Amino acid sequence: MIIATNVTKRFGKLTALDNVSVNCNKGQCISLTGPNGSGKTTLIKCLLGMVVPDSGFITFNQQNILHHWQYRSRIGYMPQIGRYPENMTIAQVLDMMKDIRKNNKSVLDEELIQTFDLQHIANKKMRTLSGGTRQKVSAALAFLFNPDVLILDEPTAGLDPLSTELLKDKIRKEKQKGKLILITSHILSDLDDLVTEVIYMQDGQLRFHKSLEQLKQDTGQSQLSRAIAQVMKTN
Ligand SMILES: Nc1ncnc2c1ncn2[C@@H]1O[C@H](COP(=O)(O)OP(=O)(O)OP(=O)(O)O)[C@@H](O)[C@H]1O
Questions:
Q1: Whole-complex ipTM
Q2: Ligand 1 contact via 11 beta carbon (within 6 Å)
């Protein structure tokens, strides 16, 4: 579905992505993990077309994404920090996004708006929201247009335990529909019962892409967080 081939991205002298190749397919829920500064967000931004690689290429359903922006409407993106017009209310932000995407024929998925009860605070201005509520708006927007692919950057950061479980239930449901889900998170305990695959990055390089089961076998650990901690210790 999304294939990156030999992607390299430099920022000045720093090589943020060093010849990275990954293959992500329908129905997978992938944890993109690695130490701070290892290139995870840069890779996500390349997949979204927000950062253009210096070399290598990325395809979405066999089509090179360069200069073909249509594929973006098939991806729901939840950024690490959602930035919105601060004087707008939640309702206005949701309406604005629906208006921008009105040519998108997909049926709206407003489940998370209801699950997080955003209707009751729809008249609150974005600048007045708590960090967790802002996360809920970002999550609701990522799922709103019923995309085939969800890219979620630290989705549970700032969410209370109940909201975390509700978001995980929603992710699980969409995965079961055959969607591709890519999650970067340092809160790996949140992902244990969710992910099927793990991509591990270090120093801009892809160190491995394997199934969660394989990773557990290789490390002798039964939890994702412990398995990754072990990988980080030995690298
Ligand atoms: N626009 C930019 N200009 C210069 N350097 C950048 C830019 N974006 C990222 N970098 C650098 O590229 C490297 C990889 O950054 P990236 O944000 O992809 O890491 P990450 O794995 O997502 O980190 P974290 O876990 O802390 O979120 C870092 O050294 C970062 O400082």
A1: 0.97
A2: yes
